[in-house]
Amino acid sequence: MYSVTGRIHQIKQPRGGYLPIARFQVRTLEDAHTLAPKENLHPTVVGLAVDDLTRLQLGAAAEDVFQVALEGARRAEILGVAGARAEANGYLARIHGLDDDSIQSACKLVTFDVWKRSTFNAFAARPAEDTNPDAATLSNIRVMVSRGLHFWQEYGPVTHSGFNFLPSGYSRIVSSGDGDYLTEDTLWDFKVSAAAPKSQHTLQLLMYWVMGQHSGNPIFSDIVRVGFFNPRLNRVYTYNMADLPPETLRMVEREIIGY
After folding, report:
1. Burial 143-165 (b: 16+ CB within 10 A, else e)
2. Residue 147 and residue 141: Cα distance in Å, rounded?
3. pTM for the structure as a whole
4. φ and ψ at 148, to 5 degrees?
5. Cβ–Cβ contacts within 10 Å for residue 195, how many?
6. Model pLDDT for residues 143-193, shown as the tens digit of each residue
7. Are 57 and 161 in contact (CB under 8 A)?
8. pLDDT at 215 over 90
9. Are residues 96 and 102 in contact, defined by beta-carbon separation less than 8 angstroms?
10. Which residues contact 185 (CB under 8 A, 6 or more apart)?
């Protein structure tokens, strides 16, 4: 059994993907900020920090926002990383807003996510003590969180964040995976890359929507669109699920997820 992302890595999609990004409506938001061209942290760390700090600014509890990192630290300690839980909790205690110390502590804390999501890669990943964002990276993260908050002012409010697909959305093939955000009618994912979402990202969002429809959870009953927000590009991508070809839906349900 696989996670959503693990399953996607096994799938050979047609050219452009099962849900091509070219089919999405695209809108670029405007603001006065310009991001620094270079950052000194891995894009995954920056993306996790932006996502988690945005959730925190929206009012979610810190323990819930950084749950994956805290669980990762627990696993790291079990696997021999002495003091990992105390270290992670120390970073958590320093996160209070969008000041430099809070952002740096968030960047350090999210390095523990890998111990939960991909233990195989965790031993080779850069540890928290070596994760030190420079001034440009701190500024970029702050701007991207600010853009996320402005995005939600227009496209929100958020009804659920960090959701799963219980009780019935998982299958004999896909046993784990969790989404970013729901609003009244849209399932959203944050992407912080310098390029438009790729086919594996659109398939991930498509799988999330299908799993939500199969989950039996009423929070998904009015979700009729999927979308990405990229705070690095300040760009919104949306797709109306009523336009999904029926044969694509059947393929995802039967062949990819395994209902």
Report:
1. bbbbbbbebbeebeebeebbbeb
2. 10
3. 0.92
4. -60, -40
5. 10
6. 999 999 999 999 999 999 889 999 999 999 999 999 999 999 999 999 999
7. no
8. yes
9. yes
10. 222, 223, 224, 225
